[in-house]
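Long-time lurker. I teach an intro course on protein structure, and each term I like to show students one example going from raw sequence to a predicted 3D structure in token notation. This year I'd like something fresh instead of my usual example. Would anyone be willing to generate the tokens for the chain below so I can use it in lecture? Attribution to the forum is fine with me.
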Amino acid sequence: MGNLPKGANDSLITELDYRTHLSPLERRIVSKGWEINERGQLFSFKDFAGDCSRGAFRNAISRINRRTKPRLIVHVGTSGIGFYAIRGSGMETRSMTHTHMVGPPERCLVELLAFLGDQVTGVHNIHLDFQCPALYTVVDIVPNPQSLAKALLPVVFSGGRKVRVAIYRSGTVSVKVACSDDPFPRENLSELLMMLEQVWRRLVIDYIALARQIPPPAEWVVKRWEVNKDGREIAGPDVAMTYSSFSGVLMRFYRRGPNQARLEKLESVGKNLRDLIHQTLDQGPLP
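-- Reply from a regular --
Happy to contribute to a lecture. Here you go:
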């Protein structure tokens, strides 16, 4: 992260420019934390479960705040785990409204699902990767000084969907699909596959010498995604409910936009797109 998150105020930062002194993990917390805040949510260590332990997350926040005045990361609320906001995101002054229901967490979840009705379950913020060791040396881009990743220009689609590709020295190619405003139906991932095929074709055309070494999107592994279910209109003040006790999985119920509710959870996947389509559509392997 070479610059402050979009919309952040440079005057909030001390004369000692914190950006050149952060570790890769600390930079990721600031960058991803800002993205989560922009979606109207607070973030916690569970948003970084694949990157670090709870203790490492808290230590990283402490180190970040020691370098900034006022502190860049604000502790906003606690509900079993701590929730945070990046100063300047607009979330640092927003209080969390917790709704307490009688009965076990399973009952709360059932009530929420009933409220959401039979809306289609979607997936967004999709992280995939594949292996192509030769691609790093061929791509003529100055790498990020911390991660040494080479980031290609994002590919933008309609509906606010955007795909970012980063190539690492290890040979891993990371593909991130941002589509919070227009999620893909979880039960039918064929549209996601078609969109990624456009990204794949661009890679093959731009780096024709490696065309045979760049696997097709059906073989890309989905590492994780956020599963959501959007419900009917919701009135009243902002609401943000978090569930994590009965399953160990962080689930959020919050207002999305001016009047729509969303239930969302982060889900680790670990399957290639071909198998996921096979699984969700209950059909034979793709040709």
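Some talking points for your students: The mean pLDDT is 76. Residues 10-86 form a domain with the Arc Repressor Mutant, subunit A fold (CATH 1.10.10).
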